[in-house]
Structures are given as C-alpha cells and as structure tokens.
Specification:
The two termini are 40 Å apart. By secondary structure, the chain is α+β, with helices and mostly antiparallel strands. The mean pLDDT is 82. It has eight helices and seven strands; from the N terminus they run ααβββαααββααββα.
Amino acid sequence: MRDPTASISTVTYVGGMFNYLAGAVRFRLKAIVLTTLVVAVVVFFLDWMRPVVYAAQGVVQLGRVDGADVAPISSIVLQMNSRSFKRRAFGSDTSSGSDAKSRKLIHDSFNVRPATAGMLTMFVGAPNEQAASEAFEAAVRTLNSDQEKIRAPLVAEINAQIALVDSNIASLTRVRESLASPDSAAPAAEAELASIMLRRVWVLDLIARNEEKLMAATNDRRMLAERLGPSKSYPATLNDDVTIRQVSPMPLRHAIFAAVFVLLIMLVYAMVRRPRSA
C-alpha cells in the first residue's frame, strides 16, 4: 500500500518550494519581465541583421578502379579536409572582393567525414543554395582530378593488356580463315590416299587448337573489359540526396532560446537574493 505520509510530505514540499519561488519572484517580477523582454528583443534584431547562411550535407560515392578503392578512405578524408584541397577546389580564401566572405565561409565550413564503406559525407556552409551545390560539385571534381593521377597508370596497364589480347585475337582469326580455305586441305594431285587423310587430320587438329586459343583469348578480352566496366571502375560521384537548409538568420528561435535562458537565470537570482522581509 502507498504511504499517505510520504505522499503528503511530497505535496507539502513541492507546495512550499512553489510558495518560496512565488514570494521571491514577487519582489522582482517587473525586473525579471523587463530583462527577459529586452534580451529577447536585442537577440531578435541582432540575429535578424546577420547574413543568410545555408548548411548543406551530401554523400559522395568514392571512385574505384579494377574493383578496388583508388585510395584508402582515411587518406581521402585527410586530403579533402586539407587547406590545399580547399584552395584548389574553391579558390583562395584570402582574396578580396564581393565574393571574399562567401568563399571564406565555404573554406571554413567545408568538412568531410567517412560515412560507410566507399562513401563520404560532406558538409558545407554557403550564402545560398546554388553556392552550396556548386561547392559540392567543385569538391567532387577536384577529388576526381587528384585521383586520376592514381587511376591513369592502372587503366593504362589494363588497356595495354587488352591491346595485346586484341592483337592475338586478330592473329588467331587470320589463322582460322586460312585453315578454313579449301586450299589448306587440298593435297597435290599425285599424292596418295594415305597422305590425303593425314593432311586432313592435321588440318582439323590445327583448326581445333586454334579455336581453343581463340576462345581463351576472347574470354581474357572479356574479363579485361569487365575490369574497366562501369561496375568495377568509375569516378567519384555526388549522390542526388543533398539536403540544404537555412541555419541563419533565425531571429525568432534564437530570441525564444535567449529569453528562456535569461528567465531561468533571473529566477535563480531572485531565489538566491530574496529579501529577508519576504
């Protein structure tokens, strides 16, 4: 069973605290209300005068070559967060002119974090939605330009192997055409029957071996082409699900937060500094 004494003491304690708070606030009610309102109005207008800032978040699918990452994701994160990368992607952040503040905002706010295997999450602040989208595109374009220095030798090596296989296929195809001609199995008129049969068996054996080599070369060509196909080799791309929202100014929200914060401080101050006669 519930203890009525405990319930009554709790209610009495809460009621006493409320009465104490009401008594403390009564003597400074005007100051509390005026201070809270003044702070809310000041914060509202100060925040309202701030420049517009948009925050954007996007996901980047990292590029691959021959079914493997071009570089470890940790090194890519460090690379993209470096000042040199930002300078190459967005330009110098110390230039003067009308776009200096916008460029500095992008430089200071741009950040990259690992998301999942093969994916990165990018964050950037910009004065408008178009600038945020352009910043993401510039970052991905710069990343692909840097990774092309790694991709190019690997792709060139695979293309060289494909060229050798193509040359081999062309040679085997010419041999097939030569063996398929009527003259390849036609002996001289004075040849004996046994010689004719041996020659035909030899030609058929050459044709079979050539077909095996041609089939193997074709399979090698297909596998090499798959290594450079769109499922195993592709550049970094920005996903379509980019979210852009305005984060500044928000005068009403910030004014309410400031008013609540100041109100709590004033209530605590009123309780601590309550007059003795109250």
